[in-house]
Here is the input.
Amino acid sequence: MTKSIQVTNPATGELIREIPADTEEEIHQALKRGHEYFQEWRKVNAHERSRLLKAWSEKIQNNKETIAEVMTLESGKPIQESLGEVNYATSYIDWYAEEAKRLYGRTIPAASETKRIIVSKQPVGLVAAITPWNFPAAMMTRKAAPALAAGCTFIVKPAEETPLTTMKFIELAYEVGIPESAVQVVNGRGSDVGPLFTASDFVRKITFTGSTPVGKSLIKNSADTVKHVSMELGGHAPLIVAADADIDVAVDQTIASKFRNAGQTCICANRVIVHDSIAEEFAKKLTEKVKRLKVGNGLEKDTQVGPVINEKGYDKIVSQINDAIDQGAEVLCGNQYHADKEQGYFFVYPTVLQNVDVGMKIMHEETFGPVIPITLFKEIDKAVEIANSTPFGLAAYFFTNNYKVGAYLHDYLDFGVIGWNDGAPSAAHAPFGGMKESGLGREGGVEGIEPYLETKYLSVGL
Ligand code: ADP
Here is the structure.
């Protein structure tokens, strides 16, 4: 097991902080503490849990500027986006602070007058979460808030790249009186900590946001102790622009979807599928705007596109662009880089590629970078076929003002989150999650607390 974690700034490669990794024994003790404290936390009434969550949210908001700066330093995302993420993260705490009070059961008419049947919802127990670096705050609160609201205790292992934001959030939870055994953070490499979480009898649920291969291994490793699992995994979002779309809206929303966090989001548009008849106008308008995006250090206020997280991510993006170009794609803008492997910073300039063919690597692999590949279609069925030809099923987008086309696309796109004339569909009050290899379960909305609850029924003989 690694002994320490070095957190660096992706915009400069500089070391920000070195933090100790927890030992196997420390992690075991943390799990034991969370498991034992569950018996206390579940007794805290729902209104009090709600009050504590609201106080936590308010405290985070009061520290918003400091948190956003830490987030930008460790993740590279533009400061405006970090501020936006703090709001997004607290919106989950606010939502589940309310849902805590609405964990309704029901009564079922019995088949005999001498019986009563009562259904109640109870917390599953200790929840262990593993979170990614691209949304270090929101991917944690999406899990912690419903878990705590439901009466579960919670332990999180943040990504090695971005532990500082999470540590700050947990510190603020303690400051408002959320007990230290109810919510805990441990640090370490995923491959070290993951197996300790999955092997532990104390953990009743694993919740994860990250890559599909890691998600699959967590599901497999959870089988021996039959844990509940929630998985938010990779995406490969198609974005369809139909013949009758409002092109200006489609251009602006494509940019909003694609370049947030330098294209490092699991729901960002990854394959842009445009009707032949409007392709030229769409590509021209898109390229004009993409060229104007300001690339730079996220701490500078006017930066719109920051660095990509690390060398592995950078190499993948560059190899996808080169593969497309080698196979005949045309570069409309971008394909420029500002990177230094020695120093450890990696900027990819926003890139638009046309003449992209479904055989190219970029049409099969998640990119996680600021690149738009454009491919064309003539019949709407073909657009759906291209869109669905992936094992992923997280988000999809389409642009049309024809309600029949819209209804058809809604029905036949195999994705859990769909944006119709909307490139930014995420919201704490809506159920987010994927189909196929993009995941299991939903986060957000009334659905997002269900995975933290067991259903128990009581049959009373009178
Ligand atoms: P990425 O490649 O984008 O970093 P990962 O899925 O590897 O995506 O990382 C997401 C989270 O999963 C991080 O917190 C990371 O530490 C964790 N992780 C990585 N490998 C494993 C593993 N084998 N078991 C459990 N967690 C892991």
Q: What stands out?
A: The first strand starts at residue 4 and ends at 8. Residues 4-233+438-461 form a domain with the Aldehyde Dehydrogenase; Chain A, domain 1 fold (CATH 3.40.605.10). The CA atoms of residues 114 and 462 lie 5 Å apart.
